[in-house]
Write a structure and sequence with these properties.
The chain is mostly helical. The chain has 2 domains: 50 residues, no CATH class; 59 residues, 434 Repressor (Amino-terminal Domain). The protein contains 8 helices and no strands. Helix 5 crosses helix 6. The longest helix is centred in the N-terminal third of the chain and has 12 residues. It is elongated and about 55 Å long.
């Protein structure tokens, strides 16, 4: 990292709280990976380029909506079996499948992983 203050400035300008930016810098200074949420970033590619100039790699995790009904049908299992297989509440699975609610945050991340490799997720959850 070239300039700690410049990295903090870039993060704060991108919508990251000062305390969160400081915590990220603390992690980076001691060689740990810093994970932050930067919801106000309007131009992620620009931030990534500016961070790169400071020798800080930036990566974005984008959660996409997974069609739970289609996923479950592709796997050939019922809502109840899907819920049990992945440790989910069956009422929640029903609500997602029927469009009453949408998965967010960790649930959206889990569904994206299930969609990508359903058997591996079962293996990981069971270990």
């Amino acid at each position: 990292m070239n300039d700690v203050f410049e990295v903090v400035r870039l993060l704060v300008r991108s919508g990251v709280a000062v305390r969160t930016a400081k915590s990220a810098i603390d992690d980076l200074v001691v060689g740990r990976i810093a994970y932050i949420d930067a919801p106000a970033v309007a131009d992620y590619d620009r931030l990534k380029r500016e961070m790169s100039k400071q020798k800080v790699a930036a990566h974005r995790i984008e959660l996409r909506q997974v069609d739970v009904k289609a996923l479950r049908q592709r796997l050939g299992i019922s809502q109840e079996a899907f819920a049990g297989r992945y440790g989910l509440d069956v009422a929640t699975v029903r609500n997602w499948a029927q469009g009453r609610t949408k998965p967010e945050g960790p649930a959206a991340a889990l569904l994206q992983l299930i969609d990508r490799d359903p058997d591996k997720i079962v293996e990981l959850l069971a270990s």
